[in-house]
Amino acid sequence: MSRRWQETLGPWLVVLALFALWEAVVHVARLPSFVLPAPTEIFATLARFAGPIAQHSAHTLMTTLIGFSFSVVGGVALGAAIGASQVAYKAVFPVLVGFNSIPKVAIVPVLIIWFGIGTVPAVITAFLISFFPIVVNVATGIATLEPELRDVLRSLGASRLDILRKVGLPRAAPYFFASLKVAITLAFVGSIISETVGSNEGVGYLMLQASSRFQIPLVFAALVVVAAMGISMYAIFASLERRMTGWATRGMDQVAYATGH
Amino acid sequence: MRAELKFVELDNVSLTYGGGTLAVDQLDLAIARGEFAAVVGPSGCGKSTLMKLVTGLAPASKGNVVVAGREVAGPLKIVGMAFQNPTLLPWRSTLDNVLLPLEIVQPHKSTFRRDRDKHAARARALLATVGLKGFEERYPWQLSGGMQQRASLCRALIHEPDLLMLDEPFAALDAFTREELWAVLQDLWMQRRFTCILVTHDLREAVYLADIVHVMSARPGRIIDTRRIDIPRPRTLETTFEPQFIDLVHHLRARIAEARVGA
To answer: Global pTM?
Structure first.
């Protein structure tokens, strides 16, 4: 089997092996399904409740993506602002770290008081939780601009905006795309936390309802769907990353060649 | 040197960095228009500080820096720069890297889109003169270190600056590539006759390339010797083995040894 095929099949085989192991453990240990349902049972449940699961998942996907879009826009804007200015970086960073240290689950009840039960708190939680990695990465990408390069540009009369546009942002792109992969999975966590605390729609709500009725296989079915959505989004951003910033990773393969004269 | 021919003039310039380090002290230096000047000195003597002073990237604490008849108050816009690190942008092709200054410097900036083809033709011609014909569409990471440095020189010259500042541009290259690039740089200078300040610790490089070599003392740096290099151009690698050349290098070497002991 060629290396390429191994790389394509690898992840699927690992998932399959994981499910097989899980199935075996459940059968050998004779675990009751309200403790740990076997994968076969989970998928049977998934098929049986396909309609409601699809409906709630679609809702979660929507709130996640809305919150995530806000954090992309806001994260790039704030990241660029604090990356371009040492003063702004030092001024804003402690506050950002402070915000990020707050457990988002603690904020959700407050958000519900402000905006009512439903979609808005979920969107905001998704935003809050996925905002930080984007800001930090974009700011780092811009702030680590080589001083010589900055001198070259300044001696050409480049304004701060020129430097940001021509060098800062393109340079931050690999950092940005790397952060998107982290941020999108966090955004799912955010919206589901919020749905679990207070909502009447979404996967979080579905899981809460199911577990309160001891429908543990349904909880796991929902979890599998969340994981699948997370992986899909991750894959989308990973392929976007390869397409947009191939120079950053391709450069790695070429280092030996480039310095080898 | 007649006064009106002076292009760069430092008059009793001192610079103290924020930490209280006195980097250069009472520095006097004059460079004529179209002259190729080299500045050599022991490491840490403030050679790079001199670059920053002349280009206006660092303001003098005391004294005057005058370039092209005007006192330097902020970053100059008539300067091309190249460093030891080629600092090419990895997401741009070699051609686009060379074109970068034209996207930033006025008056080209506002008309860049319209005149792109014209500029690109000029950049290709410039790349060809440094031996990079056929590499225009390659990315920097597909080029060797020497080729990257050639491209970096092109980027420093594409907007036809009046002043070229070179901060140890060939220091990271192997000896053979370095000597090749001396010839490339000499050719470029003989064609265009820009004013050039080359900061280096390689004395052979300084004597090969420069009309005049200034020796700086250990920190706080000041000029302790100035030598005119009267070897006819174009100089070749053969020149570097002639007694006159060797004597000059020897002399400079001795001055730097004194400067180091004085530190």
So the answer is: 0.77
